[in-house]
Design goal:
- With about 230 residues, the protein is an alpha+beta fold.
- About 45% of the residues lie in helices and about 15% in strands.
- It has helices at about 10-20, 25-35, 45-55, 60, 65-70, 75-100, 110-120, 155-165, 185-200, 225-230, and strands at about 125-130, 140-145, 170-175, 205-215, 215-220.
- Helix 2 packs across helix 3 (about 45-55).
- The longest helix is centred in the middle third of the chain and has 24 residues, at about 75-100.
- The chain is elongated and about 65 Å long.
- It starts with 11 loop residues before the first helix and ends with a helix.
Length: about 230
Amino acid sequence: MRLKELCLDDRPREKMMEKGPSALSNAELLAIMIRTGTGKMNVVEVARTLLLKGEGRLNAIADMSLDKLCSVSGIGPGKAVTLAAAFELGRRCAVEKIIMDKIAVSSPRTVFRIMLPELRGLDHEECWVLFLNRANYVLGKEKVSVGGLESTVVDVKMIIRRAIERKASGVILVHNHPSGSAMPGQADIRQTGILKKALQTCEIQLIDHVVIAEDSWYSFADEQLVTESVEKV
């Protein structure tokens, strides 16, 4: 069943045009992207089925693979790609807003907010760097390596080069733990010390190293491990 075949009160597009996007439910917003239903379900019902698949959470749907999206009746490859693209745009918009709003990074919580859209739900480790000016405003962020299930390698020379190019006064190293535990391992501590010591030679400060795992994080700065890790190198 197509959107135009629904009764007026059930047409998400018309409802959005009349009342704005904030008036629509999550199912109705999803229905606009899904576009059409099946012979047994209208498009809003398909959207509700998708929400049930994600236990009612948009974050869970955003983390779904294309194959998992396609497992929902009424969603084929084309619709799955449309949904995935929409959620990716949402992630990028959220990160861009934080950066464009020029929020100073004053705590690990701010780092968590900036990086969670990039790292949530990954089944492998990724290492990112936030480049900051003297006032701790974000100049930019960059993925510097991709690893396996349990580790990733930090390219110290590349990070220093990027920091100099951006005229950064400080950097924050960020990586995720797919295991669900944010506690750093010995390799994390060792790499932090190597990076901090190398940055110091260029008068650039390693402000923190934040490990993100699902909805939690671990801050080297809070635990004073940034300093201790240098002493162990």
